[in-house]
User: Fold these one by one.
Assistant:
Number 1:
Amino acid sequence: MKYTEIMIRYGELSTKGKNRRLFISQLAHIIKKSLHEFEEVKIQSDRDRMHLILNGTDYQEVMKRLIPIFGIQSFSPVVRVEKNENIIRQTAIDMVKDVWEEGKTFKVQSRRSDKKFVWDSNDINREVGAAIYEGIPGIEVKMIKPDIRVDVEVRQEAAYLSCLTVYGAAGLPVGSSGKGMLMLSGGIDSPVAGYLALKRGMEIEAVHFYSPPYTSEKALQKAKDLTVKLTPYVGGIQFITVPFTEIQEEIKRSVPSSYWMTITRRFMLRLTDLIREQRHGLAIVNGESLGQVASQTMHSMLAINEVTTTPIIRPVITMDKAEIIEIAERIDTFELAIQPFEDCCTIFAPPEPKTKPKLDKVLHYESRLEVDALIERAMAGLQIEEIKSSDVFLNETTDEMDDLF
Ligand SMILES: Nc1ncnc2c1ncn2[C@@H]1O[C@H](COP(=O)(O)OP(=O)(O)OP(=O)(O)O)[C@@H](O)[C@H]1O
């Protein structure tokens, strides 16, 4: 079938009152970015719908790109034809033939905004329905819950027909809720947290703490590959690598092991907050889940959180591990996340971390460290790169290594 456009129905946008125009233009911006190779496709948006005029581009390729985009409730490939009864009839038959299989039922549902058109909406239903019934032997009509619903809309400029509706990713367009810094480890939880933040319209930048030579290049590549998995929702993501070796060594040297974890996390949070400030973010996102490990008890969170008043968004805080894994599998980050490359926290994990750290002790131990100087040096070593959907990190090096041997 030669579809001429794709019609997009907005998700929650419809209820957002005066922000609506902003949300629609953000959605158009994201769609444009994600379709950048399809130069012929033109975007037209109005209050209720968005139209992607295909100008000959393959509709299936375009539809694949729309599936992960947040802010879309559903979309349909549509054919625009002249307002001629025979052309409308024939187009409807061809379109249904394309998707019909033995046993599938149909119904026609129409709207007519051009009141001068020869058929009113009842006529359209009857005439087009009869044409399909006669044109496709064996097809049955079903008024309630048909398998195929043929939508016919007759407007001033043309008639539009469609018979396929694909559900979109829902949520809000990325960027419409501002920007947050995602603390991204190489684990299961933080990529899921990032995905959920994106779903509610937050643009994210990934911040990763890295402690060479204790953590390998592969741990860093794994974090970057996890970031690649989040790009279909947004396009490119800025990935910020923070050198963390000196801070971890200093903590290990000067602080009793039961407080390593709390103080390490406080440094991570301070640094992420400074990066956020520099890069005009509004919040921090992490993958903490209540009670999962020592750093994720309420007592620990209180002691760690004390370094900032910036909102910390914890999208998976109340989820069980199985629930987080279910999302990780759906967004295809799980297999990668369970690859066994050591993270900086695993390497410096104390034998018995405090689950109820005391703030006065934390402050006392921290006073043994040159906090400001350590932070300043880490900030001076930040590396920032854009991660794109076509990037591959782990496999690429593995292949290069294979070539060497
Ligand atoms: N190396 C790191 N770089 C950036 N953020 C980190 C790093 N390590 C931990 N974090 C942040 O702290 C959160 C808690 O980390 P922790 O390792 O305690 O728990 P986790 O539940 O295993 O998380 P994850 O599965 O995301 O690694 C992570 O979800 C992440 O947001």
Number 2:
Amino acid sequence: MIQVRDLVFDYLGHRALHGVSVDIPKGTVIALVGPNGAGKSTLMRCMAGLDTPLSGSITVGGVDVQEHPREVHTKLGYLSDFFGLYQELTVQQCLSYAAAAQGIADKHIAKRVQDVARFLNLTDKLQSLASNLSRGQRQRVAIGQAIVHMPQVLLLDEPASGLDPEARADLSALFRTLQAKGMTLVVSSHILSELDEYCTHILSIRDGRVSRFASLAATATGAEGVIKTLVQIQLAAPAPQLAGLLGDYEVAHLDVQGLAPSTVYLPAGDLAARAVLLARLTAAGVAVCGFQEVRTTLQASYDQTGATGRPGESA
Ligand SMILES: Nc1ncnc2c1ncn2[C@@H]1O[C@H](COP(=O)(O)OP(=O)(O)OP(=O)(O)O)[C@@H](O)[C@H]1O
């Protein structure tokens, strides 16, 4: 969905990105992490077509960001780490303005604003001035402005900074919903545990270079390059029938006594295949008390880059 090739970016007298290359698949949620000054915001701004690299290229949905920025902007939403709202506008006006700026036809704007406000739980704030909103509400309006044109890709630079735990949890739920709608998200944050709740991949940047890009799920490549993920099945009671029920599947570990989880490979991202297996097990009377993808935590994956502590604290 986003293809970055050999990206080099210079600020005056300072190289911020040294040949960054990465392929971000459609429908993924990328945790963009790294120490202060690593180059995360610069990379996002280049992806959004707001900064021009010295060399290299970025395509979004196959469209070159530098050659066709306007076309890319129809596919992409971006929330800067220091976003601003027009204080003297109401929420409705903020969202309508963003919709018009994104080229949504006048006759569709009112409905689109209503839909986005409902989605972000802002309907009762539509007539409030932006200046009268709380930090969390302002954040939601800014996200609303970024998604009002229903982009395929959403870039969010430190979206949760300054939010209380409740607002952060709301934001996590919102990102999961956007992913379920098929959106590809790139989210930067220094709080790994928070990103862990919804991210599928880690993209770690250090000193302007990619130090790690990996799926957080335990994956393997099968025949003809098909990517498979490992799903673990935890039993609440022994189930001798489990071996027969998993006969058609690629089983990595089997424990019919349920002392340890059994693990099975399923096609990556195929939620329907997971649902079919779970239904098959429960229909056969297997007492399943846990059924989930085997994943590494973001912190563990980040630690493999050789970093210590929180990304914001590393040297
Ligand atoms: N406008 C600018 N002029 C000159 N140098 C800049 C500018 N903006 C950023 N830099 C430098 O470019 C490098 C990358 O900065 P960037 O903001 O992309 O890092 P970051 O990973 O987003 O950091 P943080 O986690 O602190 O937000 C840093 O060394 C920074 O000092």
Number 3:
Amino acid sequence: MTQHARTDLADTDLLPAVGAAPAVGDDGAVHTMQVRDVYKSFGSFAVMNGMSIDFTDNAITTVLGPSGTGKSVLLKHLVGLLEPDAGEILIFGRDIWDISENERYEIRKRFGVLFQDGALFGSMNLYDNTAFPLRKHTDKAEDEIEHIVMTRLKEVGLEQAVGKFPNEVSGGMRKRAGFARALVLNPDIVLFDEPDSGLDPVRTSLLCDLIMEMHAQHGGTYLVVTHDIRSARKVSDYVGLIWHGKVVHYGEADEAFASDDPFVRQFLAGDSAGPLGMD
Ligand SMILES: Nc1ncnc2c1ncn2[C@@H]1O[C@H](COP(=O)(O)OP(=O)(O)OP(=O)(O)O)[C@@H](O)[C@H]1O
């Protein structure tokens, strides 16, 4: 298990100026990201059913769960795109639905999100896609933007492809460009929605290496949602398992992968035999 220090997180200037004091966890600390007893239904279909999780700061957590169990819905709650029916989403100890829209917008800027397909703008080349958040959210001059964008694109191995458009590059390159774009605002939190989807095993493995390298270099609280047990085994410091709208296990990855618990074992071994069924 590795944890990487992120010194600037301790800088309270980074925390959005919000009236109420931040909530502290059971250990008395303010956590980067907490889900507290969250319920969410779409019509009569309950997706989150009292879900709680305190993500470990400055570590890579992987959340695994069967299809349709609410992993993407969890990500959307964390970034403030969905509002819980009940419960709290605490970011830097602040309930993001107990603050103003402006404050929520400021908090959102502390996130980098890598969507499944990279979510690049088709009409912009990789350079402009990567520069987009800097142009939208900062007043940095173009030469400073160029420095940041080229540094990030180099880190993900795309410095030769800056002029290409998303439809001219491979799926793996689109994901790497999406990753570079997710990092340009130097986020405290990076969310990955199935970063391995649509990639072959070798490219998946290379992307996992990149996630670990970038985390080691920049720090931050990373959350990876995936189906791929091999990716989870490779990148995770911590693992969360979701089942029937709840987090049924959260802990250090090494322990989870060595667990005797039949549910955890079946889940992480991808076995058909065990307590997990198709329902
Ligand atoms: N906006 C929405 N309106 C109605 N139902 C929704 C909405 N968003 C998600 N759902 C439903 O919530 C359930 C959970 O969806 P979600 O995409 O979070 O699953 P997931 O665990 O990410 O699945 P997968 O691993 O297959 O991507 C699904 O049944 C989905 O149809």
